[in-house]
Amino acid sequence: MRVNEMISRVVAMPRLVLLSLAVLAKFSLGKPLSPDDARASFSLESEDLRVELVAAEPEVVDPVALCFDAEGRLYVVESRGYPHPGKGMPEAKLGRIARLEDADGDGRFEKRTEFARGLTFPNGILPWKKGFLVTDAPDLLYLEDGDGDGVADNREVVLTGFFTNTSSEQLRVASPTLGPDGWIYLTSGLAGGKVTSPKHPDRPAVEARKNDWRFHPETLVVESLPSAGQVGQAFDREGRRFVCDNRKPLRWAVFGPGALGRNPNLAGTSSVMDLAEPGAATPLYPLSPDTTAASFIPKLMQKPHAGSFTSSCGLCFFTGDALPRHRGSFFICEPAQNLVHCRSIVETKDKLSSKASSEGREFIASSDQWFRPVFAANGPDGALYLCDMYRKYVDHPNYLPPEAAASLDFEAGKKMGRIWRVSSMSEAKPAAWHKSKGVAVAIDKALKGGELSELAALAGESGSNQWFRAALFSSYPAKARELVEEFPDSASPALFEQSAKILAMEQPAEKLPSVIRELWDKKKGWGSAQRVAFLLGLPENLRKPYQQEIQPKALAASLDVKLTVSDRLSAIRLLVPSARSKLLVLLNPVERDAIREAAIRSLASTNDPGLGKKLLAMRPTFSPGDGAVVIDSLLSRKPLHSLVLDALESSALPLHAVSLTQRRRLTENPEVKARAAKLFEWAENSDRMKVYHEFKKVLDLPADPSAGQAVFQRACASCHKLGDSGHAVGPDLSGLRNQPADALLLHVIVPNREVYPSYAFYQAETKDGETHAGILEGESPDSVSLVLPLGLRKTISRSNLKSLRAMPLSLMPDGLEQTMSRQELANLLGFMRK
């Protein structure tokens, strides 16, 4: 039986499993909950945690920041005008600051006084002297109650000129925070400014594009910082500053003003260090339906943000004793996914990172879509306090497709809001404070300078860290040669590569060859990895005298599986074009992913059509990831564009192998532009696209989602999951309910228009005559694993594997619309979007 026929029959097999009521409830958007019911919806990290209501509507509305005064009264910033559609500033100034008091001592702050009104989009507050500093772009304000009635009667503009011409009010100056150095720090909101003080009109404006800020509260001297945070920043006990923004939940702002400018030859260093990788590498565990902005955008259909950070804000370094296990940890709010996350620092000699406080669950997660925590703060009682805007939708309409934004009720919840207090019933002793002993200490020492020999010795332990290297070279401008001579011979190759780059810029051109030769001959203790790295840092013309000597060692290192991955990658980079064909032997599953990718890119970089053809011929036998690297590396070389087009035109390479974004590289290359345009125009006018345009009439039919459930079970469940129903073979459809119906229809009718590499369709033949077709789930030196329709899994030993090839079509067959009526198709789309 042909594979496609087999798959078509499996897809058409009836399924009788119904979605459970629990799944239907999970994806019900619902109505707002009372504070008691909202609290009951919280899933907590551990049983000892306790969440108590501090304030709720009408006492508080749309809270986005808070602080306490010396008498324990709570001041809450309310951004009542959010969201403002369009750009610019609204005419109405709806923002307020409320003073809340617990009049009867029961823990509930029930007495409200309007401390300030007439603010635009206030988003941060800091107690200062007898009043408060408040960020309300374009201004930083000082508000003070002079007569003790609880209402601010003194309002001064301290600083002004912070930009408001951004895409939304999410991007504004925010988070006033007193630093340990006595300066007050502000996050830029990823916006810039031309900042001045009305009290010092003679001073020139301080300009920055999207940098953070700091100012001295007494002199009002303003400086821009090299970091850029959005909403939320915190200092730890050792004086380090941390920021966050959307996809990046925890970032150490390593360098202060001017640090990276001390060495003019130090370029390309980021000023911030991510302690949690953006994206899927730092997973989240939400319990609510997906309402992230990405879920409404068709081009992100197979790149969902749900389950990873997408709205990080309200960063807090926790110092209280009421959560003893979490003292010294960071709390990060994730309002788009209705949760609060907790992380702690992990430090080694060469790396600073972080880990979640609990694996597989959040500090707080809610099934209530309206729970929108946006700010976390330490309370005077040692507990954690949270601002909950309590909105049905919290993403800004400017970041959604217009048709999606028009369909959502952004007004829902505008008169609501809650403040929560989180503590522990545990009597455990508070966690010990983290005290840096690794790379953070090395970076601090390097920034302060000191004895060159001492820091060179530290480089032996921390030299692989790019921020340590930047700190070291920034403190020692014009000293690259002296540093290289002092570095331990076994120090990280990355240290020697950067040293060579800076050395080449520091030394006079006429002296540079002799300096390089002297170091090369003098450093007898350097290993091959250090020599390779040193040469990589030099301009190509200065490498030539050493190429013949080092090439055999570089090639041997490239192929030596006993060496570290980083050493092998450096060796691959140093190979001359004539030696790179030897890397073909690395294109097998025994090798590490990074080695295979580097080998593919090195082979493509030769611009050799013969090697390009070999890569294309081998591509069907590669994993989805390696196959994607082949296409990307060939498209990055304009001389090989004709080769790719030849393969596409002959159907040796399926059209979906080149993504819609990658096709621009071909259509923007003048030499092949006409060929590429003709090919892709034909694809857009293919028979399947004609069917799609014909079936768009289905979108006008009234849909019955309940009836569509049966269609899903019959036609889709064998290869797709939706909630708890179906099988996870192809993409999970649970997150598609926010997608436009026409985008879903396009994927149903034209499944091969764009196939993501992770869902490429593979066929495996065994030596004993079996044929299996499915999604390649994994491969190892000993076996390959396929996921087959109905979720069946097949592992085949390599000793029994005759062939493994990527198929030109996706697992989902063309013509699915022929298995149902048009009304059934409309019902299916309705069910997928329910």
Q: What does this protein structure show overall?
A:
It contains 23 helices and 35 strands. With about 850 residues, the chain is an alpha+beta fold. Helix 5 packs parallel to helix 7 (about 465-475) and helix 11 crosses helix 13 (about 565-575).
Number of domains: 3
Q: State the CATH architecture of the largest domain.
A: 6 Propeller
User: What is the share of helical residues?
Assistant: 25-40%
Backbone CA Rg: 30 Å
Low-confidence stretches: 1-28
How would the global form be characterised?
A: globular
CATH topology of the largest domain, what is it called? Neuraminidase
| Strand residues, percent | 15-25%
Which class best fits the helix and strand makeup? Answer: alpha+beta
| Termini gap | 37 Å
CATH class of the largest domain: Mainly Beta
The main sheet comes to: 6 strands, antiparallel
- What's the total helix number? 23
- What integer is the average pLDDT? 90
Number of DSSP strands? 35
Characteristic terms for this protein:
834 residues, alpha+beta, SH3 type barrels, Neuraminidase, 6-stranded antiparallel sheet, 27% helix
Task: Explain the layout of strands and helices.
Layout: H1 3-11, H2 21-26, H3 35-40, E1 42-44, E2 49-56, E3 63-68, E4 74-78, E5 95-101, E6 111-119, E7 124-128, E8 131-136, E9 139-144, E10 154-162, E11 174-178, E12 184-187, E13 193-196, E14 206-208, E15 213-215, E16 222-224, E17 233-235, E18 241-245, E19 248-253, E20 272-274, E21 313-317, E22 330-334, E23 339-347, E24 352-356, E25 364-366, E26 373-378, E27 384-388, H4 402-407, E28 418-424, H5 439-448, H6 452-462, H7 466-475, H8 480-486, H9 493-506, H10 512-522, H11 528-536, H12 540-559, H13 565-574, H14 593-604, H15 609-618, H16 624-635, H17 641-649, H18 663-667, H19 673-684, H20 687-695, H21 705-715, E29 721-722, E30 725-726, H22 741-749, E31 761-766, E32 771-779, E33 783-787, E34 793-797, E35 801-806, H23 822-832
Antiparallel strand pairs: 1-25, 2-28, 3-4, 4-5, 5-6, 7-8, 8-9, 9-10, 10-13, 11-12, 12-15, 13-14, 15-16, 17-18, 18-19, 19-20, 21-22, 22-23, 23-24, 23-25, 26-27, 27-28, 29-30, 31-32, 31-35, 32-33, 33-34
Helix pairs in contact: 5-6, 5-7, 8-9, 9-11, 11-12, 11-13, 12-13, 13-14, 14-16, 21-23
